């Protein structure tokens, strides 16, 4: 295929981290068009063991594997996780259109590996260029090696067969940064959690409570996500209805001293969040309840149980906090409060 067949070739991925199979896929994409747009998924989210690197760090990683002339042909753009296929697809198209001339011939390059690749079929106006899988390299396994390392020279030798050399050097340097050891601890905690409890499915409940243009948040006091913001919630108990469970978790984590009847009257909506990738603990389906207390004096709250602290946060500040939320809780809030533009 010659580079002038298409004006722009699009490559979508998380690249956590960028490995040799990704490099081969990018090389194939560069053969398809003179200009390439690499869309970096899971952008603007808090770091976790599945997404340890920011989109800027990933762009730098990938760029380090390219020569100067090739790097000039590649544009890196962030794409957030909406956990909503329609909204995500619209965001992808909008991002590419911003850098495309009207009538541009656009190719989408990728390979169909499993159900997680269905997103490649959501862009009928683009020409899909299917390529074979280049190697049995799995980013999940690479992250496992990386976070379970006890002997960096041995780990470096192992990763050297899976990653481009500049990426190996990048990861070695990254182990000295303050993010590495907390994420390593989180990885080990999640592995132990799966050993004890399995991978689900689990049923949880969450409570979004608003009052006087504020929302009630908790800071997580335990792994995973220690130190991140979340809405109050937890696992449903065997004999509970989901509304009862949401109110119980709300009280346990925030000390909110309102009667059940008051909260039941304030209930504005319930939504189920069931994206298979929404939680690193395993397949977790949550029932989120939105309680609106209206214009009132903000009730006293105090963090307890799994919450290090609880606080009323102005809704106007939430968008700036997106990268500090646990799992999909920013998107959960967005569902009820329309935070995204």
TrEMBL record:
Pfam families: CTP_transf_like (PF01467), NUDIX (PF00293). It comes from the Bacteria. The keyword DNA-binding does not apply. Keywords: Hydrolase, Nucleotidyltransferase, Transferase. GO terms for molecular function: hydrolase activity; nucleotidyltransferase activity. Its cofactor is Mg(2+). The keyword Ligase does not apply. This is Bifunctional NMN adenylyltransferase/Nudix hydrolase. It comes from Candidatus Accumulibacter cognatus. The lineage of its organism: Bacteria, Pseudomonadati, Pseudomonadota, Betaproteobacteria, Candidatus Accumulibacter.
């Amino acid at each position: 295929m010659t580079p002038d067949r298409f004006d722009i070739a699009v490559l979508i991925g998380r690249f956590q981290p960028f490995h040799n199979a990704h490099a081969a896929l990018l090389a194939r994409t560069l053969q398809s068009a003179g200009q390439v747009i690499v869309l970096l998924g899971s952008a603007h989210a808090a770091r976790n063991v599945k997404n340890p690197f920011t989109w800027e760090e990933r762009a730098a990683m990938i760029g380090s594997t390219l020569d100067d002339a090739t790097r000039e042909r590649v544009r890196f753009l962030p794409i957030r996780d909406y956990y909503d296929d329609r909204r995500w697809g619209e965001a992808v198209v909008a991002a590419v259109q911003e850098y495309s001339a009207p009538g541009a011939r656009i190719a989408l390059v990728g390979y169909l590996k499993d159900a997680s690749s269905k997103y490649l079929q959501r862009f009928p106006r683009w020409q899909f260029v299917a390529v074979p899988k280049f190697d049995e390299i799995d980013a999940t396994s690479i992250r496992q090696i990386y976070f379970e390392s006890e002997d960096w020279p041995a780990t470096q030798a192992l990763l050297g067969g899976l990653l481009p050399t500049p990426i190996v050097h990048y990861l070695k340097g990254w182990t000295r940064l303050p993010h590495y050891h907390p994420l390593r601890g989180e990885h080990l905690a999640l592995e132990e959690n799966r050993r004890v409890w399995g991978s689900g499915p689990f049923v949880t409940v969450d409570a979004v409570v608003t009052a006087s243009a504020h929302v009630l948040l908790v800071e997580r006091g335990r792994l995973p996500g220690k130190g991140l913001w979340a809405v109050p919630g937890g696992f449903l108990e065997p004999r509970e209805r989901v509304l009862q469970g949401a109110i119980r978790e709300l009280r346990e984590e925030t000390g909110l001293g309102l009667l059940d009847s008051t909260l039941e009257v304030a209930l504005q909506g319930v939504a189920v969040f069931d994206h298979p990738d929404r939680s690193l603990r395993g397949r977790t389906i949550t029932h989120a309840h939105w309680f609106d207390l209206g214009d009132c004096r903000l009730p006293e709250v105090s963090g307890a149980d799994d919450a290090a602290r609880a606080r009323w946060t102005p809704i106007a500040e939430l968008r700036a906090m997106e990268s500090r939320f646990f799992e999909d809780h920013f998107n959960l809030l967005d569902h009820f409060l329309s935070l995204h533009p």
